[in-house]
Write a structure and sequence with these properties.
The structure is a single chain. This protein has two domains: about 1-45, no CATH class; about 45-105, no CATH class. The relative contact order is 0.13. Strands 1-2 form a two-stranded antiparallel ribbon. Strands 3-4 form a two-stranded antiparallel sheet. It is elongated and about 60 Å long. Strand 3 (about 45-50) and strand 4 (about 55-60) form a beta hairpin. The chain is of the alpha+beta class and about 110 residues long. The chain has helices at about 15-20, 60-70, 90-105; strands spanning about 1-5, 40-45, 45-50, 55-60.
Length: about 110
């Protein structure tokens, strides 16, 4: 989940700058409500587990966005087809091992 605490925000704008989905926007205001001291959940999603080790490593919406971006690039369609389709659903560690095993089988990325 993505949580926000009004009282902790210094208004630097870094969160807005680095948001990969560009869904964070800042509003200059002074928030004087009592709940400014509490964390508030602003987004929540289920986690996806690695196909290989089972460790949760990415949220569902982020994985769907990554898959859509990668598969929209025509040059990568062969890279993530067949037995390599699951690479996108593995954590970075397992993905690296699986990719090296594919290279050992003759795959040339």
């Amino acid at each position: 989940s993505l949580q926000f605490k009004h009282i902790s925000c210094i208004g630097c704008g870094l969160c807005e700058t680095v948001c990969p989905e560009k869904v964070i926007s800042l509003k200059r205001a002074i928030y004087l409500e009592r709940d400014a001291l509490e964390y508030q959940t602003v987004a929540q999603d289920s986690m996806v587990s690695c196909l290989q080790c089972g460790k949760p490593y990415i949220n569902r919406k982020a994985l769907e966005a990554v898959e859509a971006r990668v598969l929209s690039l025509g040059s990568l369609l062969d890279t993530f087809s067949g037995s390599r389709r699951g690479l996108l659903r593995m954590c970075p560690n397992c993905r690296a091992v699986a990719a090296m095993l594919e290279v050992d089988k003759g795959w040339k990325p």
